[in-house]
Design a protein that fits this description.
- Residues 1-18 form the signal peptide.
- The active site is at residues 107, 311.
- By secondary structure, the protein is an alpha+beta fold.
- The chain has 3 domains: 2-30 and 88-230, Acid Proteases (Cathepsin D, subunit A, domain 1, Beta Barrel); 37-82, no CATH class; 264-422, Cathepsin D, subunit A, domain 1 (Beta Barrel), CATH 2.40.70.10.
- 18% of the residues lie in helices and 35% in strands.
- The chain contains 9 helices and 30 strands.
- The strands form 5 sheets. An 11-stranded mixed beta sheet has the order 1-14-13-29-30-15-16-19-28-20-27, sandwiched between helices. The chain has a 6-stranded mixed beta barrel with strand order 6-7-12-8-11-10.
- The radius of gyration is 21 Å and the shape is globular.
- 50% of the residues are buried.
- Bound molecules: 2-acetamido-2-deoxy-beta-D-glucopyranose (3 copies).
- One 2-acetamido-2-deoxy-beta-D-glucopyranose is lined by residues 281, 283-284.
- Residues 281, 283-284 line the site of one 2-acetamido-2-deoxy-beta-D-glucopyranose.
Length: 432
């Protein structure tokens, strides 16, 4: 664990030392993660309060939370660890004076920035320390002030929850320092959060109107960067480049990073194309865009008024059920597996038997790489859980990591637009 911290500190240092280049906030991928397609889908359904319309091992508990039913009839929690491990992308941030480093998930699907803290129970703090996880120790920061009377609480996919009080402190993301950032300090975490080891908090990158601090909602780090002129108002943006473990053999080694305030032109140049932009509708607080057609092996279906939410904190892509059925109908041996609650296909499928699926970002066509049509193997079955699943009763699509791994993405809040350029990936590793 010490070694891990050492490497990350060095990454930050190296990045900060490279003057005149764009600062890349490195994204850490969790090694040896044990992904579970069904649980990722249930997490997504809960995050967006979606009811599935196809049969699956789903069941609602008395508080309305969707859970995975076990074969025996008992229901299993979808732990925060399952999802956070699947998403498995965390980034280093620095909080307080002197700076304390934490590993958090950058989540464009929420607007709260909260961290593990010294306000948690002594047992929880001890557990975190014993496994080498960091937490924000208020007593060790000389720069924080209490936002007295402010509270927050978040409820996640499994009905697990986190809540606490709020302070203002210095937050450093990449080379950008934010003064008085509202940091939501956890003082209670439900069990499933306590046992997860994937991250030490969340940094919300949706629009501030979704912020859940009471009584007065607080600004997100991106909004504060702009308000404090940490980044120019005409560059009120962040970018996201998510690699995959399937791409470590590629020229970019499956590298992943976020940038703030600047677009990484080296990445754009490598694609040989320009970034295409489409307007964002943030009425609901999300990065929501038009997505009015889909093409499967050249067969185009027009979807009038259809929209999609782009979410860096979600693993899968979900679309209208009948379109998902059309996609998998093109793969020999693919089927809807009611036990898994999702579409699966044979792991042995060669790339030339996989469909070319094009999703619309405004008028721009983005191809979902064949390797990302497969999310993760379904244990002991020879099948792969699909990276695209049904959206149930949702009126919009969700574009999570299955989509983001195929592009370089620009979240431009200043100009209220979303930009994408398809990344080049010549090698497709379907079985994972
Ligand atoms: C902030 O509030 C916490 C919890 O109520 C308290 O322990 C701490 O002393 C306060 N810190 C300051 C700087 O007022
Ligand atoms: C933006 O979204 C809201 C709510 O989802 C909708 O009522 C409104 O018509 C949308 N605006 C545009 C320009 O599409
Ligand atoms: C093309 O898409 C439509 C709409 O989803 C579907 O009904 C039709 O079967 C598809 N045609 C082919 C040749 O796949």
């Amino acid at each position: 664990m010490l070694l891990r911290k050492f490497i990350l500190v060095n990454l930050l240092f190296v990045a900060a030392g490279a003057l005149h280049t764009v600062i890349r906030v490195p994204v850490r991928r969790k090694a040896n993660y044990d992904a579970d397609g069904t649980k990722s889908l249930i997490w997504l359904y809960n995050k967006y309060k979606i009811t599935p319309t196809r049969p699956g091992p789903f069941h609602r508990d008395s508080s309305g939370v969707l859970k995975k039913r076990q074969a025996a009839g008992a229901s299993a929690e979808v732990n925060a660890d399952d999802q956070l491990t699947d998403t498995f992308y965390t980034c280093p941030i620095l909080i307080g004076t002197p700076a304390q480093q934490l590993e958090v998930t950058f989540d464009s699907g929420s607007a709260d920035t909260w961290v593990w803290s010294s306000q948690l129970s002594p047992q929880t703090v001890d557990l975190a320390s014993s496994r080498g996880s960091a937490y924000y120790d208020l007593a060790k920061s000389t720069s924080y002030t209490n936002l007295t009377g402010s509270t927050w609480s978040a409820r996640y996919g499994d009905g697990s929850s986190a809540s606490g009080t709020v302070v203002a402190d210095v937050l450093k993301v990449g080379d950008i320092t934010i003064e008085n950032q509202a940091i939501e300090v956890a003082n209670t975490l439900s069990y499933s959060f306590i046992i997860q080891t994937a991250n030490e908090g969340i940094l919300g990158l949706a629009f501030s109107r979704l912020n859940k601090v009471q009584p007065v909602p607080q600004r997100t780090p991106l909004d504060n960067m702009v308000a404090q002129k940490g980044i120019p108002g005409n560059q009120a943006l962040f970018t996201c480049y998510l690699g995959s473990y399937k791409d470590v053999g590629d020229p970019d080694q499956g590298m992943s990073f976020f940038t703030f305030g600047q677009i990484d032109q080296d990445v754009v140049k490598a694609t040989g194309k320009q970034i295409s932009y489409t307007p964002v509708n943030n009425t609901k607080g999300f990065w929501q865009i038009d997505s009015e057609f889909i093409t499967v092996n050249g067969n185009k279906t027009v979807l009038a008024d259809n929209t999609a939410i782009v979410d860096t904190g979600t693993t899968l892509v979900v679309l209208e059920d009948k379109l998902v059925a059309e996609i998998y109908s093109t793969i020999p041996g693919a089927r809807y597996d009611a036990q898994e609650g999702g579409w699966v296909f044979p792991a042995s499928t060669p790339a030339d038997k996989m469909p070319t699926v094009v999703l619309a970002v405004g008028q721009t066509e983005i191809i979902i790489e064949k390797e990302h049509l497969g999310f993760t193997p379904v244990k002991k079955t020879g099948m792969i859980y699909g990276g695209i699943q049904g959206r149930g009763n949702s009126k919009y699509n969700i574009f999570g990591d299955t989509f983001l791994k195929c592009v370089y993405a620009v979240f431009d809040a200043g100009n209220m637009r979303f930009g994408v350029v398809q990344r080049i990936d010549k090698t497709q590793n379907i079985a994972g």
